[in-house]
Each structure stands twice: as C-alpha cells, then as structure tokens.
Amino acid sequence: MTGYLIRRVLGAAVVMLVLSALIYGLFYLAPSDPALLTCGKGCTPERLADVRVAMGVDDPVPAQYAHFLEGLVAGRDYPAGADVRHCPAPCLGYSFETDQPVTALLLDRFPVSFSLALGAEVLSLVIGIGAGMLAGLKRFRLVDRLVNGLILAGYATPVFLVGLLLLLLFCVHLQWLPFPQYVPFTTDPLLWAQNLLLPWTSLAAIQAAVYARLTRAGIQETLAEDHIRTARAYGVPERRILWRRALRGAMLPLITVTAIDVAGIMTSAVLTETMFGLPGVGQLLVGAVRQIDLPVVVGVMLLTGLIIVVANAAADLLYAAADPRVQIR
Q: By 3-state DSSP, what share of the chain in percent is helix, strand and coil, each rounded to 5?
C-alpha cells in the first residue's frame, strides 16, 4: 500500500506538472501579447510597462515558466513600484483587477464551491443509487419504466433551466425558501443547508440520472451472474444478496464516473453560482474572463485540475474497498 501511494503521489505530481505547462502555454505564451491583452483597451504605456514587468513576458520562454514553477513551490517576488513584495508559496501571482494574491482569492471562494459540489454530489448519489436499485429490482415493470423516463428527462434538461424553475416555484410562487445567500457552515449549519438546497438540487438533477442508469445496469448484470444464483440456492436472504453482492458489484462503474464527474460539477457550478448569486470559484472565473484577468483564470484552471487528479487517486483506493478482487500493489 505504501509503495502504491508513493507511486500515485509521484504520478499526480507529473500530471500536474504537464497540466501546468499546458495551461501556462495556453494563456501566457499562445497570445501574441498577453501583457497587452491583460492590460485592456484603455491601457497607457506606463501601465503596459508595469504589466510586462509583473508578468515577466520580456524574459525567455523557459525562464518565464521556471519563474512560474518557482512561485508555486517556493514563492516569488513581485515589483511594487520602488519596493518588492513577496508572494508566498503556492504563489499564482496577483490579480490585475483587485491587486490581491490569486491564492487568497481562491481560498476565500473555495468553501462556497466546495459546499455546493459536496452537497450536490451526496444528493445525486443518494437519489441516483436509490432510483437505480429500485429500477434494477423491478425490471420491465411500471417502476422501471417510470425511472427510465425520469432518467431521460434528467439527461435532457440543462442545469440552468432546472435552477430557474426551482427559483420561480419555491422562491417566487410558493415562497417556501428564501433566495439563496451563502451562509458559512460554521455560522449556522441549518441556514447553510437551507440556502444551498436549491443549487444542490439543480446540480443533482443531471448527475442523479447518470448514477441511476449505471446502478440499474450494474444491479441487473450482477443479479444474473452465477454466484448470485448459488447464494440463493444456499438460502442467503435476498436483502443480504442485494446489499452485499449486487450493489457492491455495481459500485465500480459508479466510483469511476463519480471521480470524472467532479470536473463536471465544477463546470456546471459556473452556471449555478452565477444564477443563484453564490460567491464561489465559478463566479470568480466568470469575472476574471470578463476582465481578462489571466492570473486568476490560470489559478482556477490549476485548482480544477488538482481536484480532478486527487479525485481519481481516491477512486483507485476505493476500488479495493468495493471489490476484493481488485488488488493495489
């Protein structure tokens, strides 16, 4: 196990290194003049010169990327007029709009996005696995057809439409819930969940459809295997067969898709946070794209890549817990 963890950490480090090179090249090297792009249309020559120095675009390409990696690992110094200010590691630079460290902006917005993604993922797993189990056990019956219809509706409905309908129904017409305003979990857990219930439901509608379909197919396939018939012949209770054998056999594809869906939730969160006015990483990205704030855009892309790499590493560890036939070496 220790050797596997070491290999996974080294592999994740290599993936992040390659990803950082691609992202840096896309946003800093591909544009003909990234400093002018960041500075904007009304940029003065003095401001453009400051931006060039801050971005280091006058240095050779290998030196630019080396300084970028140095900031991530050991921090970096940035000119501030006649002075020099130090940006501690992991340093992603300073926002050209707010003049704040990008790392600080991400840390400030990340709890909102994490709360949104975590609640939506838990809700989609509970609904999706429950509906998939019900459809898998009632194959070709009315319940199975009903679940399949709901799955297709979930696939076909965009997240912004679900969010808009929920806002109109529960906040405007019925007035059962207030318009979402993020409240930290440490301040009031109940109010935190109440304000995030509609965004969670908007994101979970599509993901639950995916999980329900996978669970249904996995349970039906597992129940048709020989070891299930053998267990029934030995008189093993049907409930034990379902929970310890059928559902466990259907968990592997769910684990894989859940790890991949982390990226999907982060992408959908851009629309969800904007629609519900949640000050998360997605809304930060939208503002950075509008203002062409390249350090913030690069920081969000790297954070998303890191989350995906960590989620896939965790999925590999969960394989062994879900299926004893999987060995980690």
A: 75, 5, 20
Domains located in the chain, CATH noted: 2-87 (no CATH), 102-322 (1.10.3720.10)
Q: What is the Cα–Cα distance from 124 to 211, expressed in whole angstroms?
A: 7
pLDDT in tens, 274-306: 888 889 998 898 888 888 888 899 999 999 888
- The SS3 assignment for 87 reads strand
Place of tokens 């259907």: 250
Encode burial over 234-261: b for 16+ CB neighbours within 10 A, e otherwise.
eeeeeeebbeebbbbbbbbebbbbbbeb
Phi, psi of 252 (to 5 degrees): -60, -50
For the stretch 60-110, pLDDT in tens is: 888 888 989 998 988 888 876 677 888 888 888 888 888 889 999 999 999
Is there a contact between 201 and 127 (Cβ–Cβ < 8 Å)? no
The pTM of the full predicted model, rounded to 2 decimals, is 0.84
Asked if residues 146 and 212 have their Cβ atoms less than 8 Å apart, the reply is: no
The interaxial angle of helices 142-156 and 102-137, nearest 10 deg, is 160
Cβ-in-10-Å burial (0-12, 13-18, 19+) of 35 comes to buried
